[in-house]
């Protein structure tokens, strides 16, 4: 299997934030909007949905190994995770769109990634009663991870300095809109849509073995214990950081000298970024934004 030709991506420049369907977006995620909305999901498709930097790659790799770890060895050695699990709404110059990539997937099930908030997910996923795995991460660590990602990923808007970034994050002026609405939107959806598995990054860090087991149970897989153990080991942060197929080191628009994709993988790194004043203001704002939900996060474990 050939890796993708990324040479055309070298021309990518930092895009402007635009208002789109009620959230902040960039054109790389809206250029193929009609086809995204018309996307025909199949009943056995699995949608991996997250706010950016909540653990998408981690869960994608776990699911990929659960389904295809033993059946397709070449997939593991030569196909980067972002090709195995296409990013539905992504459109990059001279590359197949996310929709095209998803439509061309030869696998069953098809694993598909999205960062779209729940109200913008193509209707066919719900109509086909597809399984949806949602991963949420506490707002503070999510913001820190997003900040470093914006610094290094040239396809995203400039983050500004940390203080500036944090203000924009609170105001929802980030690609894919407000974190608050994203995590709460899927949480509410779960109350009426039983095929949604809502996971937390913090639980994965604390006990990934248990989270893999829960995933198997949700997916209806009877993966043997030894295989689950192997998958838990392969998807450990250190292993994924070393693995070229999961660490994004093959993507030229990401500058790893600024920050690696697999950066720290920790719960509580926010303490190294928030000042006391920023933390107090954030907590106050958080209380207001999250007052109407039963959703609870842990900012330390
Ligand atoms: S993206 O760009 O939205 O798809 O990014 P995403 O994969 O959602 O999130 C990247 C963050 O997840 C961390 N990560 C992990 N942490 C612990 N263990 C494992 N195995 C793992 N895999 C990915 C990654 O390091 C990013 O978080 P930070 O805090 O920046 O390190």
Per-chain topology:
Layout: E1 18-20, E2 23-25, H1 33-37, E3 46-50, H2 56-68, H3 73-78, H4 81-84, H5 98-103, E4 111-114, H6 123-127, E5 131-136, H7 139-152, H8 162-170, H9 179-192, E6 196-200, H10 201-206, H11 208-219, H12 225-234, H13 237-242, H14 276-289
Parallel strand pairs: 3-4, 3-5, 5-6
Antiparallel strand pairs: 1-2
Bound molecules: 3'-phosphate-adenosine-5'-phosphate sulfate.
The site of 3'-phosphate-adenosine-5'-phosphate sulfate has 21 residues, from helix 2, helix 7 and helix 13.
- CATH class reads Alpha Beta
Work out the radius of gyration: 18 Å
How much helicity do the residues have?
A: 40-55%
The coarse silhouette is: globular
Question: What would your notes on this structure say?
Answer:
With 301 residues, this protein is of the alpha/beta class. The chain has a single domain, classed as Rossmann fold. The chain is 41% helix and 9% strand. The protein is built from 14 helices and six strands. It has helices spanning 33-37, 56-68, 73-78, 81-84, 98-103, 123-127, 139-152, 162-170, 179-192, 201-206, 208-219, 225-234, 237-242, 276-289, and strands at residues 18-20, 23-25, 46-50, 111-114, 131-136, 196-200. A four-stranded parallel beta sheet has the order 4-3-5-6, with helices on both faces. It starts with 17 loop residues before the first strand and ends in a 12-residue tail after the last helix. Bound molecules: 3'-phosphate-adenosine-5'-phosphate sulfate. 3'-phosphate-adenosine-5'-phosphate sulfate is lined by residues 50, 52-58, 145, 148-149, 205, 235-237, 240, 262-265, 269. 3'-phosphate-adenosine-5'-phosphate sulfate (PPS) binds at residues 50, 52-58, 145, 148-149, 205, 235-237, 240, 262-265, 269.
């Amino acid at each position: 299997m050939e890796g993708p030709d990324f040479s055309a991506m070298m021309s990518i420049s930092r895009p402007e934030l635009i208002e789109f369907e009620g959230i902040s977006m960039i054109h790389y995620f809206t250029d193929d909007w009609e086809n995204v909305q018309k996307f025909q999901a199949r009943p056995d498709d699995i949608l991996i949905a997250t706010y950016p930097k909540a653990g998408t790659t981690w869960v994608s790799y776990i699911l990929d190994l659960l389904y295809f770890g033993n059946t397709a060895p070449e997939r593991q050695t030569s196909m980067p995770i972002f090709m195995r699990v296409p990013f539905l709404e992504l459109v990059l110059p001279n590359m197949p769109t996310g929709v095209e990539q998803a439509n061309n997937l030869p696998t069953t099930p098809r694993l598909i990634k999205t960062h779209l908030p729940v109200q913008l997910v193509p209707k066919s996923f719900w109509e086909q009663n597809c399984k949806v795995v949602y991963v949420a991460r506490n707002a503070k660590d999510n913001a820190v991870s997003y900040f470093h990602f914006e610094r290094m990923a040239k396809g995203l808007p400039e983050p500004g300095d940390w203080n500036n970034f944090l203000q924009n994050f609170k105001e929802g002026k980030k690609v894919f809109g407000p974190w608050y609405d994203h995590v709460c939107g899927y949480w509410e959806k779960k109350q009426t849509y039983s095929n949604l598995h809502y996971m937390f990054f913090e639980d994965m860090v604390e006990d990934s073995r248990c989270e893999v087991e829960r995933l198997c149970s949700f997916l209806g897989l009877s993966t043997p214990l030894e295989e689950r153990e192997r998958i838990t080991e392969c998807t450990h942060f250190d292993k994924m950081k070393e693995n070229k197929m999961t660490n994004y080191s093959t993507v030229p628009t990401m500058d790893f000298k600024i920050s690696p994709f697999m950066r720290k993988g920790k719960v509580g790194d926010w303490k190294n970024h928030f000042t006391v004043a920023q933390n107090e203001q954030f907590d106050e704002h958080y209380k207001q934004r999250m007052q109407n939900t039963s959703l609870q996060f842990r900012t330390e474990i």
